[in-house]
Amino acid sequence: MMGVGLAMLGMPASIEGPVILPISPGHALSVLDGIGVLPLLTGSFSLYRGLWQRRESLRAVALRVPGPAGGLVFVGGFGLGLLIASAFSAFFWWWAVGAVLFGAVLLAAVVEAGKAGNVARGTE
DSSP string of 61-102? Predict the structure, then answer.
């Protein structure tokens, strides 16, 4: 689902349709963006729900290695901050840096949560 939403949000401006909501120079919400947000939010919801259900195992990892875990939380927050700031400011291409940072931390959390799920099922 998230891939479909990202693909729709990544379409060229020439096929996105009229602008619904201008945000800043170089950023606006178009008709296609509005439609693409729906599968993106649906996929994000299921991803975050899965992480929430495995929060105790993620907490155990954070308690076991607090330094790296704290660093990952900082990097993820910094990446998300860059994503948000780039939409409302002149940091036009910084969204890509923020997306990579936030995505890498999210991927690390998903991998750890997946390991915890395998241990709980006895399939590791």
Answer: HHHHSHHHHHHHHHHHHHHHHHHHHHHSSS-TTHHHHHHHHH
**In degrees to the nearest 10, what's the CA dihedral of 10, 15, 20, 21?**
40
**Bridge partners for 24 per DSSP:** 27
- 72 vs 74: CA distance, rounded Å: 5
Domain definitions of the chain by residue range:
1-53, 55-124
Q: Which tokens belong to 122?
A: 């006895």
Taking the model in full, what pTM does it have? 0.76
Q: State how far the Cα of 62 lies from the Cα of 34, in Å rounded to an integer.
A: 36
Q: Kindly give the confidence (pLDDT) of every residue in the chain, 124 residues in length, as a single tens digit, with 9 standing for 90 and above.
A: 888 888 887 888 778 888 888 877 767 788 888 888 899 999 999 999 999 999 999 999 999 999 999 999 999 999 999 988 887 777 777 888 999 999 999 999 999 998 876 655 555 5
